[in-house]
Design a protein that fits this description.
The chain contains 3 helices and 2 strands. It is an alpha+beta fold and about 80 residues long. The chain has one domain. A two-stranded antiparallel ribbon has the order 1-2.
Length: about 80
């Protein structure tokens, strides 16, 4: 486990896409440092949520893309 304060307890499938808040299988430590950080993933989550709300992609497609690999979720869904 990374040192306390160096990560955010994040949701694999974000809450804004209907992910479970307390399911241990949906939680993981996401680092604040490096190239793929908690802040970077937050932006991806927001873009996916906005695309779902606009009807650009389905909720299922957004969930699948971010669960499989959040770093490629925007390109896989065609929104970024």
């Amino acid at each position: 486990m990374p040192p306390r304060g160096s990560y955010e307890e994040n949701h694999d499938i974000p809450l804004e896409l209907g992910g479970s808040r307390r399911d241990p299988g949906n939680l993981w430590p996401e680092p604040y440092s490096g190239t793929k950080t908690a802040t970077t993933k937050d932006g991806v989550e927001t873009k996916l949520k906005n695309a779902v709300c606009k009807g650009t992609i389905t909720l299922s497609a957004a969930r699948t893309a971010i669960k499989n690999n959040w770093t490629t979720a925007l390109s896989v869904t065609g929104i970024g």
